[in-house]
Structures are given as C-alpha cells and as structure tokens.
C-alpha cells in the first residue's frame, strides 16, 4: 500500500504576544491509502492541530504535508473533515445544509436535491429535511455533518473526536454506521479520539501521540472485523492491547 | 461507499401527534393580552378625560375628546394628510437610505478588519455627535426642503445600522467560515453564504433600534426649519397654545412609529425563521 498522506518533520507553533506556543514538534507520519487509522492521545497533545494541518486549514510553521505527493496549501475537496464541534449553518435546514458543498461546486439544483435525498436516507434522517439544526438532537446534528461531509464523495475522511459529545449508546450506533459506510468504499480514514476502546474498535492501525505530537506507539490492530464491542471487552487479545495503549498514553503524558 | 439502507441504528422519522385544543387554548393568551391592552387604553383615556377639567387646566393638558375633535377637523380640511404625508415620506426615505448605506458600509468595512481598525475611532467620534446639532449645518448645505430632513434622519439611522451590522460581521463563528473553506469555497462564497446571513441578526437589531431615530431626525428637521410636516404642525399648534393640536400630532407620530416597527418586525420574523421560537422577539 502506498502512502496517500505524508507529514514530514512538521512543526506548528501559534503566536501569543511575544511567545510562540508549540503545538506540534518535528512530527512525521505516513498514512496509507484505504486504511482506517485511529490517532489516540490525551487532550492538548496536538491531535486537532495535526488534523487542521492535514485538512489545509492552517499552514505549518515548518515541514511539509503532502497528499498524493502534492503539498497541501489549502483545503481540498477530496479531503473531508468532520470537526469536533458542529459547524452546520444554523439558518439552513437539514437538506440545504447537506446541499451546501454541491452548491459551492456548482452542481445544478435538481441533481443536488436528488443527491441530498440519497444522503439523508443513508444517515437515517428521513423526515427531518426541513428541520433547522437547532431543532435536532446532538446525535442527529452529527449525522447531518457526516452527510454533508460525504456528499462530496471525499477520498479521505478526517474525523476529530466526532462522537465525543454523544451518549454511549448513540456513539456505538454511529461507530457502526461509520464502519458500514467505510467498508469496501476504498476511502482513507484518519480518526482522532481520546477513547482507547473507540480507537481499538475502529482502527486498522492505532497511533498513540504523546506531548507535542511525539509518536509513542504505532501498531497494527488485527482483531478481525466485524468487531462487536460487547464481545471484544472480554477477549484476552483486546484486553492486552487495551493495557498496551493505557501504558503508552501514560508514557506519552510523562515526557 | 456502500449504499446499504440504514439499519436499526438510524433515527426514526419525526413523530407527530395531533393535539386537540379548543379555540381558547390556542388563542387565549393572545386574546387576553390584546384585551388587557385595550382595557388599559380605555381606562387611561377615561381618567384623562374625566380629570382634565376637574384637576388640571385644560389649556395645558387638553383632553382626549378635544384631541379627537382636532383630528377630525384636520382630517376634514386636509391638513392632517398633507402634513403626515410629507413627514412619512421623509421618515421612510431617511430610514431606507440610512439603513441601506449603513448595512452596506458595515458589511464591507467589517470584512476588511485592518481598514476597520484604522477608521474605528473616527466612526465612533462621528457617531457620538448629537445628530440634532447637525441640523443647522444641514440647512446650510441642503436648504430647508425635504432633502435636509431626509438626510438628517438618514445620518442618525446610518450609524446605528452600521455599528450593529459591523458587530454582526465580526462575531461570525470561525468554525462556519472554515466549514466553507473545507468545501472548497472562495472568499465570495464565504461572504455570501456565511458572513451575510450571520450578520443579519446584528443588522436587524440595528434596524429595530433605528426606527425611533428616523422619526427624531425628520421631526427635528421640521421643528428647526419648515413650513409643512408634522414637526411644523407641532410648532404651529404650540405657538397658538393649541395643546389639543400638539397631542393630535403626537398621536399621528406614534401611529407612524408603530407601523414602521410592525414592518421591521415582520422582516425580522421572516429572516429569523430558523431561530427557536423563544429567541424571537
């Protein structure tokens, strides 16, 4: 498998008054095509900064980010990014929110309507097309965001703790939905989380980040799919992995 | 991307239950409020009418029946409509001109933060000048005709709409801007699809605040120098100790204000239809 995303000796610092606050230092990572990589780390370890760099929202202070060999200097439509917070337009209803990326691309209205209906069906929001974001529950808003990201058929999905704010049951449901949407699609997924179980449940590969984006652990997860959370919890292999991750997170926090 | 239909994890479609409500349950609240308002007006007018000749000198306080008589008289000899029309035209023109210029300037300037920073203290200084104090200057510049009153009203309205629109533009959620950038949107897409709609709330606040100021601008202009309009009518009536005439004119002015508020309110409801009901005013 070839690397689709490559981050090379990447550093990012934010300016505050006369100080540069370092978020990432000398970070190197390769992500291969069609893989599901989960990035595990505590809050403040530079996970979100990494995704913002991958998405092309912010420029790196030094180092390079390349996508299929091309440097990323601005957001690219083939990379979809689901941010931690909801960024749905509050004045647009569900359907018009989902149509928005197509509107910007200049897709004609009838085609937009059709494609939006397809996505609404796929994320299970049938009957809510005319609702505004404020009238939806947190879980439903996440589905709308997911649909809006998927409507442009991105090759690569960047997900930043997408289900962090949801209740456990809903999170399990949406994780299963995400896997169902991903399997066989050939899409590359980078999924950032601070939840060990979520990382193991979803990823082909888990990268554990320590402070300033130091890679503490990078390992393949070969638990066969489909992975059922309930059964996994008592599986000795999973328990061993869980322990390994916990140790890695603790080590990452120390240094 | 698999296109399997959503499984049980999918949310069920919106469930609606018909609720049987009587006419009173549905409209009762509104009706009670309307009736209470009516009762309040009737009581106040009755007290005024009854007490006018007993407790107060009618030369100073007039009384509702006299005001009504004066309105009818003015209606019959055409004084009322001729003058109302003049003032209404000044108010509406001033309001539209001032708010259009204010909204446009607020939107453009706030989109260029550096320019805004440079101009900010000057804008605030101009804003702080009492617009009434500009009236003599405006007379010199534009004469004592309609233009002077329209521009005086517009100058007041401009700053209120400008400042509120600019505040709305600067408070735009960065996350929404980034969302459009991620979709491959250009600067133009960001301006039209994010900044414009989200600055509407600020602009509408400006419009609502500006309604009474449009009236102030026009009426002050007429009070200072004019031979027609409601401001002139007030001056004229007061000069003849005709308090009924002054009050009659004030009644007309408040009706105009109420109508303008209604129009702005309807516009607000239409623009803000995405907001939850409790956030609407």
TrEMBL record, chain A:
Keywords: ATP-binding, Nucleotide-binding, Transport. Transmembrane segments: none annotated. Residues 5-236 form the ABC transporter domain. It comes from the Bacteria. GO terms for molecular function: ATP binding; ATP hydrolysis activity. InterPro entries: AAA+_ATPase, ABC_transporter-like_ATP-bd, ABC_transporter-like_CS, ABC_transporter_ATP-bind, P-loop_NTPase. This is ABC transporter ATP-binding protein. It comes from Nonomuraea longispora.
Automatic annotation (TrEMBL), chain B:
InterPro entries: MetI-like, MetI-like_sf. Residues 84-268 form the ABC transmembrane type-1 domain. One of its GO terms (cellular component) is plasma membrane. The chain crosses the membrane at residues 29-48, 91-110, 122-144, 150-169, 213-234, 246-267. GO terms for biological process: transmembrane transport. The keyword Cell membrane applies. It is found in: Cell membrane. Keywords: Cell membrane, Membrane, Transmembrane, Transmembrane helix, Transport. It is a multi-pass membrane protein. Its main location: membrane. Belongs to the binding-protein-dependent transport system permease family. This is ABC transporter permease. It comes from Nonomuraea longispora.
């Amino acid at each position: 498998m070839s690397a689709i995303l490559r981050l090379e000796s990447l550093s990012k610092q934010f300016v505050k008054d006369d100080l540069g606050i370092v978020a990432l230092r000398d970070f190197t990572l390769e992500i291969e095509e069609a893989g599901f990589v989960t990035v595990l780390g505590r809050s403040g370890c530079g996970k979100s900064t990494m995704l913002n760099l991958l998405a092309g929202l912010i420029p790196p202070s030094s180092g390079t980010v390349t996508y299929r060999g091309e440097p990323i200097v601005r957001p690219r439509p083939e990379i979809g990014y689901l941010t931690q917070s909801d960024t749905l337009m509050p004045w647009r209803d569900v359907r018009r929110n989902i149509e928005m990326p197509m509107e910007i691309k200049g897709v004609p209205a009838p085609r937009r309507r059709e494609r939006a209906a397809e996505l609404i069906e796929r994320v299970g929001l049938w009957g809510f097309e005319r609702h505004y974001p404020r009238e939806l529950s947190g879980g439903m808003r996440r589905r709308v965001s997911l649909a809006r990201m998927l409507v442009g058929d991105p090759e690569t999905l960047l997900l930043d703790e997408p289900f962090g704010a949801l209740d456990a049951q809903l999170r399990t449901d949406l994780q299963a939905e995400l896997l169902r949407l991903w399997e066989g699609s050939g899409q590359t997924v980078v999924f950032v989380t601070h939840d060990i179980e979520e990382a193991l449940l979803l990823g082909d590969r888990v990268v554990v980040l320590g402070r300033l984006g130091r890679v503490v652990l990078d390992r393949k997860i070969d638990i066969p799919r489909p992975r059922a959370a309930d059964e996994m919890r008592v599986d000795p292999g999973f328990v061993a992995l869980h322990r390994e991750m916990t140790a890695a997170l603790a080590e990452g926090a120390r240094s | 991307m698999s296109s399997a239909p959503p499984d049980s994890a999918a949310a069920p479609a919106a469930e609606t239950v018909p609720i049987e409500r009587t006419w009173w349950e549905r409209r009762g609240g509104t009706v009670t409020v309307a009736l209470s308002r009516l009762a309040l007006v009737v009581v106040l007018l009755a007290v005024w009418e009854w007490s006018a000749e007993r407790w107060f000198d009618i030369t100073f306080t007039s009384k509702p029946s006299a005001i009504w008589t004066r309105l009818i008289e003015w209606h019959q000899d055409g004084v009322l409509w001729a003058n109302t029309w003049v003032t209404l035209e000044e108010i509406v023109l001033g309001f539209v001109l001032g708010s259009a210029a204010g909204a446009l300037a607020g939107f453009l300037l706030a989109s260029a933060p550096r320019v805004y920073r440079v101009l900010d203290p000057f804008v605030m200084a101009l804003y702080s000048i009492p617009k009434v104090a500009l009236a003599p200057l405006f007379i010199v510049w534009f004469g004592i005709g309609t233009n002077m009153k329209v521009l005086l009203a517009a100058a007041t309205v401009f700053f209120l709409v400008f400042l509120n629109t600019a505040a709305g533009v600067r408070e735009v959620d960065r996350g929404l801007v980034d969302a459009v950038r991620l979709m491959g949107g250009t600067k133009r897409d960001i301006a039209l699809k994010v900044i414009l709609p989200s600055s509407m709330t600020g602009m509408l606040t400006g419009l609502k605040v500006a309604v009474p100021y449009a009236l102030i601008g026009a009426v002050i202009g007429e009070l200072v120098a004019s031979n027609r309009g409601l401001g002139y009518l007030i001056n004229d009536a007061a000069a003849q100790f005709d308090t009924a005439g002054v009050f009659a004119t004030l009644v007309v002015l408040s009706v105009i204000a109420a109508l303008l508020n209604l129009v702005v309110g309807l516009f607000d409801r239409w623009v803000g239809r995405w907001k939850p009901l409790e956030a609407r005013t």
